[in-house]
């Protein structure tokens, strides 16, 4: 998986790293049990400080996307079920995205179609059959 960072973005570098790793897991580019680069290796590859990568990895661990073992390093966790804390976070983020879309003139159907298209790009293990 190729990581690309925008140093001019208002989004902190550690958050960009986190977001790209989560998206990579969601799209199936990173599989459960797969080892991520070491903190030092990813920092060198991305041209950032090791503390930045460490912060991203710790956030991913806290959120349940990766496991960290001192001997084995960071590995991708299996796709799990959402919990009530996550659903609350999802609702808040969707509320904000919906408000922004509404204020920028994006209609409900267009917004829902965008969501459906993007969600459809995720790996089949992430998509529930409905």
UniProtKB/TrEMBL annotation:
<dbReference type="Pfam" id="PF00392">
    <property type="entry name" value="GntR"/>
</dbReference>
<dbReference type="GO" id="GO:0003700">
    <property type="term" value="F:DNA-binding transcription factor activity"/>
</dbReference>
<keyword id="KW-0804">Transcription</keyword>
<dbReference type="InterPro" id="IPR000524">
    <property type="entry name" value="Tscrpt_reg_HTH_GntR"/>
</dbReference>
<keyword id="KW-0238">DNA-binding</keyword>
<dbReference type="InterPro" id="IPR036390">
    <property type="entry name" value="WH_DNA-bd_sf"/>
</dbReference>
<keyword id="KW-0805">Transcription regulation</keyword>
<feature type="domain" description="HTH gntR-type">
    <location>
        <begin position="11"/>
        <end position="79"/>
    </location>
</feature>
<protein>
    <submittedName>
        <fullName>DNA-binding transcriptional regulator YhcF (GntR family)</fullName>
    </submittedName>
</protein>
<dbReference type="InterPro" id="IPR036388">
    <property type="entry name" value="WH-like_DNA-bd_sf"/>
</dbReference>
<dbReference type="GO" id="GO:0003677">
    <property type="term" value="F:DNA binding"/>
</dbReference>
